[in-house]
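Single-chain item
Fold in token form
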Amino acid sequence: MQLPDTETLVLAQDGHSLYVTLNRPESRNAMSLQMVNELMGVFDAIENEEEIRAVVLRGAGGHFCAGGDIKDMATARGKAQEASESGKDNPFFALNREFGFLITKANKAPQVVVAVLEGAVLGGGFGLACVSDVAIAEQHAQFGLPETGLGVIPAQIAPFVVERVGLTQARRLALLGERFNGEEALRLGIVHYVKEGEEELAKQLQKVLEQVKRCGPAANRKTKALMHRVGHEPMETLLDDAARDFADAVASEEGLEGTMAFVQKRLPNWAQ
């Protein structure tokens, strides 16, 4: 598998897992347009790579991601004035919408996306946390949606926050812009595990990746795709398709191996 060249990300494959580290520690891994495009390139590159079963997202330097990059905002502001005078598209729209494309791509990635959350988990970083399949937070991580305090809106993030925590809590988080720690993030359902310190984070991450390894690769992909369809299609249509997928899975090589391994009281071949 050929991974793309990146400048703002560090990529490392270890068995069935791809580690993607946001690597702009000088800015607390603020999400630049370059980083957005490089992340999308990584998800595009691995979309059909079935040997990659988990993607681990984390940040360098003790922070996950502090939100959008102010330098990109300043550049876009200068271009916005030019666009207004020339009648061209507003660059703020393009900059903001590009992050929406990324977060949608991360949300629908067929792999299990695991977010390891430390330090600042703000704005765009908060959004990425909300589309992860499994989120592990350091107890003292700082979560928040600071956009309204800056006079802007969490435009591409808000819909995914609503999906994660529900409308009532999402309103409070976005309209007050308050900061909160890993324990509160757990209570709200943003994260699934809270640990204190790097050693405990690493142990929990390894447990999660071992559990991913125990699940059938094709079964996980189909299951994630099925759950993403809930609420967007009529239930009877969805259940008909799910039954067909189930029948195909039972008759597949993976399904036969899984049931045989269960009967023989051994691990299936994909878990070894």
Remarks:
- Residues 9-213 form a domain with the 2-enoyl-CoA Hydratase; Chain A, domain 1 fold (CATH 3.90.226.10).
